[in-house]
Amino acid sequence: MGTEPQRLHVVFFPLMAAGHMIPTLDIAKLFAAHHVKTTIVTTPLNAPTFLKPLQSYTNIGPPIDVQVIPFPAKEAGLPEGVENFEHFTSDEMSLKFLKAAELLEEPLIQVLERCNPKADCLVADMLLPFATEVAAKFDIPRLVFHGSCCFALSVMDAFIKYQPHKDVSNDDEEFVIPHLPHEIKITRMQLNEGVKQNKQDTMWMDVLGRALESEIKSYGVIVNSFYELEPEYADFYRKVMGRKTWQIGPVSLCNRENEAKFQRGKDSSIDENACLKWLDSKKPNSVIYVCFGSLTEVSLLQLHEIAKGLEASEQNFVWVIRRSNTNGEETEDIFPKGFEERTKGKGLIIRGWAPQVLILDHEAVGGFVTHCGWNSTLEGISCGVPMVTWPAFAEQFYIEKLVTEILKTGIPVGSKHWNRTIECNVKWEDIKEVVRRLMVEEEGMEIRSRALKLKNMARKAIDEGGSSYVELTSLIQELSNCKLNSNGF
Ligand code: UDP
């Protein structure tokens, strides 16, 4: 009697940031739904992001394990308790974090040694460049997960290869990013300091160089998007950049029940029922949702302008304000005098963490003011919600171009400066105008109908037989073949 080959076992090691850990858990759920055993490796303070939603996760496939390894904060010179990008308050801290990340190689090896059944594939973040060699030690493929889309990855590659920003004389002069399928223009102000001045910190350059090298040597790349969303860039990434790629998203759509949507990420600052009750009381497409993700800061002055703009737009709104935005100040100082009373019933303010996908997926929500983090953008797309784009840093200015110029499902607010903290650059009058253009004017209706088409495409992609479903199953098949070959079958 032949023995049944053991189930495929995939180990995930995401970067310690909400925008990487949240989609990783969704990806693990998608693999589990195909009867693949999955293990997620993380550090103590990041573990609840996985463990909490898994408590109520009713397994449709084999269990998702979480392996917790110590985080070497002290060794890297970081204060105790700093284990996530969210905690960084300076560039120096992120450099120390990279140092700490390098020290995670040995604990990762130990996890793989302990794996039972043995691991068959390691999916690790790009900023963990040692992962390709670690996987090679165990004779298993390493896949990279960037947390971004083919469009942004192609733009980043164009900057590395052609350095188009070097040929312009002013920071506010638009220039074309060369050799891309579309004519995309940007200014140097919208690039980070390092790229702008061609003097990246040497440690960053070193890590990025090694990350790129390890990506090129890796087995391939998992991308959280779907082919029909960015076909030219999916082809470009595969054919021109030469990456073997599987687009398996939008991964957030694996959360079909309200409870699963509610539990994504951190503990919500609002009760699920209270949130749904508030949204249920509003007409379809009458609420604009405002959220800048898990890392972007907003200055007090800019918060004031947003409050005035929202009030003047006369639209219902849900506005998420991260606690660190307040710098410990009382809310009275955040808002113009009397703002909360005047907008009572019209506005729902969530201080802290919002159940974003639950909110975006509600029919009352008809617009999304977003910082263009890739997850938020794709979640908005998956829910058919048109956007006001307000990029701050990272690759967000690139993603804004995808949304406003290629997909044409958003209107830019007019953000011009790359900075993790949104200073007071956009005035309340402009916020009011852009919100009204999206929510009440003819232009907004056209954008909405395009957004709805994308929503349907996104859902089709993930359903049985759809493009992402097919790419995921073919990846699983390929990994199973690798396993059989390495077992000498
Ligand atoms: N998110 C959330 N509630 C919040 C803030 C963020 O659920 O209050 C989630 C959001 O749904 C997304 C992730 O956190 O999945 C943020 O990732 P993104 O790439 O959009 O932005 P980042 O935080 O990395 O800038």
Automatic annotation (TrEMBL):
Keyword Glycosyltransferase: yes
Group of enzyme by EC: transferase
GO molecular-function terms, A-Z: UDP-glucosyltransferase activity
Keywords: Glycosyltransferase, Transferase
Pfam families linked: UDPGT
Coiled coil: none
This protein's pathway: Secondary metabolite biosynthesis; terpenoid biosynthesis
EC number annotated for this UniProt entry: 2.4.1.-
Protein name: Glycosyltransferase
Organism: Dianthus caryophyllus (Carnation)
Organism classification: Eukaryota, Viridiplantae, Streptophyta, Embryophyta, Tracheophyta
